[in-house]
Structure to design on (324 residues):
């Protein structure tokens, strides 16, 4: 499998990155951003929607800055996992991503903007040709989705990044920049249901940093993950929870690895303010399981992943109650 050729652009500032993006967009040249390349480059090797131009964020000045309330997009997951300044929940989630080797290149921005995954899609080109493609990489055929058949308008590939749930549980916001300026929004508003569009980024825009609110430092959190091999696999389900000890209504619970977007479940948390006792935790965990509907496109069957939601949620809630 040979990586298809592409032109690599290496801007050194945010302004230059936006200018290169605007220029390529004006010329009608599709491009991708690349950070650590641990997901994009394997996908290119597999000829999964490669582009002729790639803009690297690796040399953008200050993009890897790491502080307690601001995490730059180029911050390596290894640095988050081993940092003494970031919230322990972020460090715990980062330590569970892939393998130690991958975490040395993988970044926070790349993790949040991770391409969605599906076992009909993350395959070699020959394999995909043999099933006559699918909607997400249809090679101009107009092929249908294989998971929700008889339609080629929606992709339900699964978002399997670990960091999003942990950031959402802490109330994070993201800063996006592009040729039209910058904007900021809660992380839960960043993601878009369609597994091809994935998020709200507009052409030329990229995710510059993640911000944490002041109260994040007072929160106690936990992240529990289901995966096939503990050493490096993507989440088949992931639940993060955090609260400000003593205030049951401050609970935030988020999920990942289960649907085409990670989810923040404020409605479920708010409906179970008695979650600090064992029975309340059980009820909340079951309600969460009911609210999440995985489809059949990752390694483990959706029924099993769904049933594990309540197990992971119970563990996370118990951990934060005991620690708080
Ligand atoms: C064997 C293996 C196991 C893995 N296991 C896990 C796992 O357990 N959990 C997990 O979460 N991930 C896992 N991954 C996926 C990946 O390694 C990580 O998610 C990683 O954090 C991606 O970061 P990156 O910097 O390498 O992203 P890249 O590969 O550089 O980019 C990923 C995507 O994000 C886009 N992008 C990157 N940065 C930005 C930005 N700042 N703004 C806008 N778009 C951007 C790129 O265009 C691309 O589409 C695994 C990968 C491999 C190969
Ligand atoms: S969900 Fe459907 S369109 Fe998306 S990658 Fe899977 S088979 Fe393809």
């Amino acid at each position: 499998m040979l990586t298809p050729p592409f032109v690599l652009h290496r801007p050194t500032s945010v302004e230059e990155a936006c200018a290169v993006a605007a220029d390529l967009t004006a010329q009608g040249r599709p491009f991708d951003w690349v950070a650590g390349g641990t997901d994009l480059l394997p996908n290119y090797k597999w000829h999964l929607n490669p582009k002729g131009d790639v803009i690297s964020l690796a040399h953008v000045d200050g993009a890897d800055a790491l502080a307690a309330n601001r995490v730059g997009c180029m911050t390596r997951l290894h640095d988050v996992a081993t940092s003494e300044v970031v919230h322990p929940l972020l460090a715990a989630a980062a330590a569970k991503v892939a393998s130690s080797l991958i975490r040395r290149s993988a970044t926070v921005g790349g993790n949040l903007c991770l391409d969605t995954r599906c076992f009909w899609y993350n395959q070699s080109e020959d394999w995909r040709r043999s099933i006559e493609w699918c909607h997400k990489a249809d090679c101009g055929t107009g092929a249908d989705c294989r998971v929700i058949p008889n339609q080629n308008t929606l992709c339900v590939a699964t978002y399997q990044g670990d960091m999003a749930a942990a950031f959402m549980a802490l109330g994070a916001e993201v800063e996006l920049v592009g040729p039209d300026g910058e904007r900021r929004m809660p992380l839960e508003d960043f993601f878009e249901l369609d597994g091809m569009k994935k998020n709200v980024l507009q052409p030329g825009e990229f995710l510059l940093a993640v911000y944490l609110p002041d109260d994040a430092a007072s929160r106690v959190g936990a992240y529990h993950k289901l995966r096939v091999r503990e050493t490096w696999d993507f989440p088949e389900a992931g639940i993060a929870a955090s609260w400000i000890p003593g205030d049951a209504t401050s609970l935030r619970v988020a999920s990942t690895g289960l649907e085409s977007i990670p989810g923040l479940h404020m409605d479920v948390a708010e409906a179970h303010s008695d979650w600090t006792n064992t029975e309340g935790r059980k009820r909340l965990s079951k309600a969460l399981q009911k609210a999440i509907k995985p489809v059949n496109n990752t390694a483990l069957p959706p029924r099993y992943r769904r049933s594990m939601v309540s197990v992971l949620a119970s563990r996370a809630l118990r951990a934060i109650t005991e620690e708080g």
